[in-house]
Amino acid sequence: MAEEIVKNVGKWEWSEMWKKEDWWAIWLGFAMLLFGLFIYINNAPADLHQKIAKANGILAAESARAPFKTVAWHKAVDAKKKLKATSSEAGKKIALYTKEPHGWKSNPLDAFMMGKSDAEAIKEKALAKYEAAEAKAAAALEAAKSAEAAAGDFTNETLNTAAVTAIDAWRAAHEKASKAKKKAGAKPYNQIPYLIGLCIFLAIFFGIGMKGMGKPTIKFMVGFGFVFLIAVLSFAAGTNATMKSLGIGYAAWAILFGLIISNTVGTPKWVMPAVQTEYYIKTGLVILGAEILFGKILSIGVPGIFVAWVVTPIVLISTYIFGQKIVKMPSKTLNITISADMSVCGVSAAIATAAACRAKKEELTLAVGLSLVFTSIMMILMPAFIKAVGMPHVLGGAWMGGTIDATGAVAAAGAFLSDKALYVAATVKMIQNVLIGVIAFAVAVYWCAKVDCVPGEKVSKMEIWYRFPKFVIGFMAASILFSLIDQSMGKDVSYALMDHGAIRGMSKIFRGWFFCLAFVSIGLATNFRELKHHFAGGKPLILYVCGQTFNLILTLLMAYIMFYLVFPEITARI
Prior knowledge:
single chain; 28 helices; 2 strands
């Protein structure tokens, strides 16, 4: 390996920018992001700025009038939340063609289609619940208005407390009614034609890059249909009500289905040109960068940064040293990949780190598999533990955000507790995601300087550049670009056009599909015989469990110190 690096030093050429996979991941990812910006900025909700100004005027007046959030204050917030570019005709059309299979309980076909009679039956059943929930919400609203009016000039603390309690009861009833309304709007659907359209689009989308890289494009597009089919089935399995409650999402199913095929009948040869794990996930990671907005990172501030940026490097380095000195991991690349996977943010960090240290594909598969198993366990057990011991939700959210690997699992775990826990957990995880590029660069430098270096040779900048995963540049560039746009728009406009537009309506949707295609490819390209020797003595499992245990303890300690001892005023504002 060392000789290979030295041999390639100085050979980088500009032509690599349209011939190499990492660069095509950047070009395709940015094409998707810029298209999303164009669509949603040009399909803003009608009278967006006027409606925002009106709502903000009410919020300012109510904040000055009362020492608590009044009924009018909450209604103004609700009015702003309804302003979403994804609700435009263009947004609805995009959602129609890109939506993952529907949720289902007992009949798998419900994931793809539902007839008129079945939809009517569901609607009729849900309508009764909605009407009851709406009646309770209306009664709660009247009670809240009465309690607020009784508070008069808001000088009586007892009356103020009674008003706040009544308003909180109304908000809870309103939330239940909103959820019931969605179920009461059941309509017949047939998603199969739209999934076929999405398959054709993605085959062409990724086929462009394959053509640019000089790979067999037609063979890729033929095999892509099979990979996409398994991805669709993985999403369908993950949307099952029971699987959702257990925290087993599409990622685990995608790898499992792929492994079953590759280790039984074998992955067909005509499918292999479309088994492009890194191509899919690198493009997805570039898109992920758009979701990491600096404004949201700063909303929690210094305590969240300490939890994510101080603990993570300590855990990563400690776990790697532990793996080398104590566990005696035979493969340094497997050691660092598992350490990054467990300490940073799961699969995304594993992919970037594996690319930086040139880990074998079976080592990446093993690291990802461990991550998915423990993510499913932690996203169920951690909220239950936090609730059982009565841990404050800000502390619990920060703890989960810094330790549960996958962003989606973090959000789900936070939602089990409260909106506050969800907000803190998701923001801490977002701050942690920023480290993907930093860790990849650090690993590239370390591997060049210490692991794969030639005795007596100095590390040149070109060696590091050659080793560094270029798609990380796209990840960081997307984050910077979208953060600047987010800041220039302002919080409310960005919520409508970016958060509920280019991000939720484009980047998050396609990132999910790209990641699923990558997980399917991991399974289809992996044979258990290739993994067997890595499990010798259970060392990878020991490394992950010990590292994650250290991560859990240190993150909880740091979160408590930062949020409750050093910066309690920030915690009070959350």
